[in-house]
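USER:
Class, as today's exercise, take the chain set out below, and explain how the chain folds.
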Amino acid sequence: MANEEDDPIIQEIDVFLARSLLEKLYLFQYPIRPASMTYDDVTHLSAKIKPKQQKVELEMAIDTLNPNYCRSKGEQIALNVDGTCTDETSTYSSKLMDKQTFCSSQAASNVSRYAAAVYKKGELHLTPLHGILQLRPSFTYLDKADAKHREREAANEGGDSSQDEAEDDVKQITVRFSRPETEQARQRRVQSYEFLQKRQAEEHWVHLHYYGLRDSRSEHERQYLFSQGHGLAENTELIKSPSEYLMMLMPPSIEEENEKPMAPSNVLSMAQLRTLPLADQIKILMKNVKVMPFANLLGLLGSGTDPTAVLRCVQQVALLVQGNWVVKSDVLYPKDTSSPHSGVPAEVLCRGRDFVMWKFTQDRWVVRKEVAAVTKLCPEDVKDFLEHMSVARINKGWEFMLPYDEDFVKKHPDIVQRQQMLWMGIQAKLEKVYNLLKEHLTPKKQEAQSAHPLLVSGEQRVNMAKAKVKQNFGQLEKEFQRQKAEMKSNDSSAKPDVANIRIKEEPVSVEEPMDTSAHEGLNNGLVNGLHPAQGPLDPVNGHLPGGCIDRVAQELKAFVSSTFKKQFVLTLSELKRLFNLHLASLPPGHTLFSGISDKMLQDMVLDTGCKQILVPFPPQTAASPDELKVYALWEAGDTYDQHRQVLLEIFSKNYRVRRNVIQSQLSQECGEDLNKQEVDRVLKVSFYSLW
């Protein structure tokens, strides 16, 4: 009350609401006017507008006679934009920069609280504004100058070139046929920035006439700013109580949904996230994070969330890898989508990513080249797979990004078992799709999925192998004593003449035991699983008994025969790897543990009907000597024997051959007209272990 007495009302003004220019009145906010520019020069000004976008372009005249105007600079700009010739398309016909273009942008999205007011004879007339536009200088003439400059340079460089030279610049292009657009793809395209820009560019400009401040038409239009009738019937909106009137002038701020800034499609606040169903929350979180421990997932979902319900939902969108949840591939790559890098369909991407996830269930480390060789995907796609769930380490490969979650594995053994069954199904599918060997798919140790994967050094592996050998030494010793007793009984029954015994003398063995350093995870420096000092060798001359030698030869021959019937072409390195895997599956004390050298293995390969293919590899190849030795089964007794022999003859002359050469050679030698699919099938059947 005291403030009101100190601030008495001096005058009351009637307020009228003018409607003549409703939804037609705009407020233009100009920049600071340069001294050389006048807004009243009607003859040198044009305007155009895009009504839907509320976008305006104005051309203002520049006073070139003003002392503040730099004439040399204006001539230089006009020359850069239009060049030396002047025609109808020239921007500056006077060869001077005599005008400036201004382009508008919206200053406020909601202008319902703004009005233009005119005070006249004690009356205040208000007209609501339809838009507020800020005008800023447009520098498109600089883009035009750059384009002219590039055209002149291109004309100077290519002016003397002939048609023959133009034909030399022909470049190979890749033609791709677009697929039918799905509804989801259409919605994403319509909401894209590029589509909105295109839509805005398609709206035509509407050219306007400009009338100056003192023009008679301007005087006529300004009369519409006044209310046309002063009757109470036409101004019932203003017959309100003071509080209602104030509410109309200053309405409360209401946040409307359409006024909120549009966030990217993959951004969602936690407050918005928690309004969704639990299954959708988990799907969105896993799709964005990609790899997450179960404890972190519960923390993001908020307190009070039922862990059992979370476990039920997370299994629908993620798989368990090393105790952590990794989002499923079909969630990241939905159906009818493709790779942004190579255009590969989502089905192929899901298979490749599943292979990477499966590799991480076996080991903490994955080699990128190995994944690319198996999946046959481009390096960018493979890198995306690995970045989803691992971290690159220099000179080591890609390591799974999270530590093994042993707590979750111990608390939820039923979930772990169910996930292992799912991985077995995925493994079978991968084996069928990528034609992988079962030896490649089975983990090295059965407890690899239930124990924390550790990085073990080479010395530790050797010590572990020695300890394992010592444990089995008792069984091996019993077997050795049994064989020795049999030998003594045979010797006593035969009673040979010692004087007539001739010991076969052999030169000092130049062959060394099979090199298994590349597979030290199996033998760790041991000769096929045994130390030389602990092998079951006969003390006489250090050789095996005759019966034992025959059994070793039979076992070795059976292994070689079965291996080459499955894989017709093998390098010595691959054969040794498979042999080491075979040894690892045998029980302790088996006859093959007696020690098999490289020469024995190669001789047995030749004895089983295989031939060595002398492939002429280049001298600068980085392959090891064992990888350069290639053996092939010459006759397998199937329908592809003749085709395989022709292929082996081809590769014995050149290590790299084009497919069309192979196709023509097969057709010529076999008397069959093979198409591309049949040639691919022959190559796959014959050489799938190498290529």
Summary: Residues 458-494 form the longest helix (37 residues). The CA atoms of residues 31 and 505 lie 108 Å apart. Residues 161-167, 255-265, 444-454, 494-543 have pLDDT under 50 and may be disordered.
